[in-house]
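Weekly structure sync, notes
Attendees: PL (lead), two postdocs, one rotation student
Agenda item 3: pending single-chain targets
PL asked that the sequence for the first pending target be pasted directly into the notes so everyone works from the same version. It is reproduced below exactly as submitted, 165 residues in total.
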Amino acid sequence: MNHPASDIRRQATRLLDSAGISHEPVSLRDVVSALNLELVGKTREPFTSEAALEPLGNGRANVLNGAGDSGRRRFAIAHEIGHFVLHPERRRLESGGAVNEAGRREEREADAFAAELLMPEHLVREAVREHGPDAARLADRFEVSRKAMQARLRSLGPVERRSEI
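Predicted structure, written out during the meeting:
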C-alpha cells in the first residue's frame, strides 16, 4: 500500500498524540510504550543495521544495535516504528525488479515517518522562529543527526524567524 505524505504525517501525529508528546525531543520510550512495544538493546553479532523490529515474547520489540551516535540510533528506531505503523504486513522482500521498487518505496515511507515523528513540522517551525535555522543547534535540540535536521529543514521550506522588536 502506498502512503502519501499527508497520511504519513497524520499517522505520526496520531502516534505522538497517543503517547502524550507535545515538545521536543520526542521520547521514543513513550512512543514504543504507546504501541505496546519494548525497546531493548542487542549487541549480538552479526547485526547489520542500527535498529530492527524482532519478535520478543508475545509482541514485537524494537531492537537497537549499540554502535552509532545517538541521533542516528534515534532515527533508525523511529524508522522501524514507521515500518510497524505503515507496513504491518511487512515481510522480507525478495530480489527482483518490481519487488525491489516496492521495498525502496517502503524504506522512503519509513524515513518520512521517522522525520515526522522526531521532528514534527509545528515544533521545528516554532524552534526556527525562536532560535533561527541553525541545523546543528536544532539537531541538538531534537536529538537527531545534523544530516537529518538539514533534510527536514529543506523539506519544510523557508521558515521565518520571529522579529526581535
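Discussion points:
- Residues 92-97 have pLDDT under 50 and may be disordered.
- The domain at 5-119 is CATH 1.10.10.2910 (Arc Repressor Mutant, subunit A).
Action: rotation student to compare against the earlier draft before next sync.
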